[in-house]
């Protein structure tokens, strides 16, 4: 739960830096890499939990969020 809050705070930080014209491409790319790796790890943990008999509902949500962050990362890295 703590890491989810950290990821959301990084998004807020990116918005604030963008509004102040202080968001550099390298900084934004670094933030996106961290966030994408985090959601990838969450997705892997969801798959492991599903393999051990847990509900598959969280996998769908984790997959959607991961795909969104991968798309953001690809967009940022192509512009960098």
Describe the structure.
This protein has helices at 2-19, 25-51, 57-79. It is an all-alpha fold and 80 residues long. It has one domain.
Q: Outline of this structure?
A:
The protein has 80 residues and is mainly α. The chain is 85% helix and 0% strand. α1 (2-19) packs antiparallel against α2 (25-51) and α2 (25-51) runs antiparallel to α3 (57-79).
- What is the overall shape? elongated
Structural class: mainly alpha
What are the low-pLDDT stretches, counting only 5+ consecutive residues below 50? none
- What's the pLDDT, averaged over the residues? 89
Q: What is the count of DSSP helices, taking H or I runs of 4+ residues?
A: 3
> Radius of gyration, Cα only, in angstroms?
14 Å
- Number of DSSP-assigned strands: 0
Please tell me the total number of domains.
Answer: 1
Element pattern in H and E: HHH
Strand content: under 5%
Cα(first) to Cα(last) distance is: 31 Å
| Largest sheet entry | none
**Which percent bin holds the helix content?**
over 70%
Transmembrane segments: 28-49, 56-75
Keywords: Membrane, Transmembrane, Transmembrane helix
């Amino acid at each position: 739960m703590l890491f989810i809050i950290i990821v959301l705070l990084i998004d807020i930080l990116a918005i604030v830096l963008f509004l102040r014209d202080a968001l550099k491409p390298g900084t934004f790319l670094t933030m996106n890499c961290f966030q994408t790796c985090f959601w990838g790890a969450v997705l892997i943990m969801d798959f492991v939990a599903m393999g051990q008999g847990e509900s598959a509902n969280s996998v769908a949500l984790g997959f959607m969020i991961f795909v969104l962050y991968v798309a953001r990362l690809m967009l940022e890295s192509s512009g960098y």
